Amino acid sequence: MPVLRSKYGIEAVYKQTVEHRGVLVLRGNVSPHVSDTDPHATGVRVLETRALNDDARTTANYINEFTKLVYEKLSKAEFNERRRREGKGPINMVLLRGAGSLRNFEPLSTKYRIKPAIIAGVALIRGIGRALGMDAISVNNYIGSKDDDFMAAFQAAARALNDHDFVFVHVKPTDSMSHDGDARGKAMIIERVDAGIRRFLEEASSDTYIFITCDHATPITVKDHTGDPVPFMAWGPDVMRDDITQFGERACAKGFWSRIRGIDVMNIIANYLGTLEKFGE
Questions:
Q1: Strands (E), the chain
Q2: By CB distance 3.0 to 4.6 Å, which of 27, 103, 116, 209 could disulfide with 11?
Q3: Domain locations along the chain
Q4: What is the pLDDT of residues 83-120, one digit of tens each?
């Protein structure tokens, strides 16, 4: 966007990632303190971004002009003319949300004394892992879509444990199916993940621990994220057992772990790995 660059001193780089997602990187006199343009609803107008403090006014003005320019350029694009002839809706907007800036984090390797890796198809999750000092492992046909190859992902996780202490495997399409209200599709994804975990167990060593949880609830009936508690499971050679035989929100709430905070999960994992410093006699 050379016109806007000369006017505001800001350079924009947009990169498409998976499906409809992408990332907009702004360089120059910018601030992350701006509101979303994504209205999180269909059939309504795109929002104008607002500066959340005085330092963000230039960024907000840039984003609003950027949004208008994107609409104008895409609306006239040849592929949209073709889509209209085919009776399809045009692809004519970039919706922005979750503005932020890169921070420096203490690597997991020093905080928890582990050598960590991450397997994630979604670029955002993989990027967070890299920011935390995790080795990002690429897996063919694992891009965060409903067609992900979970078998290959969990096989890669088993191999990665040969030279890593901790491997994080991220599963995206269960969330996507929930947003679509597709109960059957979500069940099929869970079944394929189960098959991947079974293959992982066949290949992993006997002293391996497995921890399963998620970052938020996405009920099929709501089709959006909610603040409900999420299930957490720990499995391994010396994990204290309870009498829960199912993995789900209601069952896990009655189990040994009951209700814990998200910030405690890594401490629990590091405790079983034996990497945390012990206190007391």
A1: 10-16, 22-28, 116-119, 135-136, 166-169, 210-212, 233-235
A2: 27
A3: 2-85, 108-273
A4: 999 999 999 999 999 999 988 999 999 999 999 999 99
For CA atoms 104, 108, 109, 112, the dihedral sign is positive
Q: Judge residue 149's burial from the number of C-beta atoms within 10 Å of its C-beta, 0-12 exposed, 13-18 middle, 19 or more buried.
A: middle
Residue whose token pair is 């050679």: 237
Helix-strand-coil percent breakdown of the chain, rounded to 5? 40, 10, 50
Of the candidates 147, 191, 146, 148, which has an alpha carbon nearest to the alpha carbon of residue 169?
148
Instruction: Determine the Cα–Cα distance for residues 122 and 47; give it in Å rounded to an integer.
Output: 26
Compute the distance between CA of residue 172 and CA of residue 186 in angstroms, rounded to an integer.
11
Q: Report d(CA 156, CA 150) in Å as an integer.
A: 10
pLDDT digits (tens, 9 = 90+) for 151-189: 999 999 999 999 999 999 999 999 999 999 999 999 999
The confidence score (pLDDT) of residue 2 equals: 53
pLDDT digits (tens, 9 = 90+) for 216-244: 999 999 999 999 999 999 999 989 889 99
82, containing H or E segment: helix 78-85
- Rounded to two decimals, the pTM is 0.84
Tokens representing 220 are: 């099929």
d(CA 90, CA 124): 26
In angstroms, the CA 57 to CA 86 distance is: 41
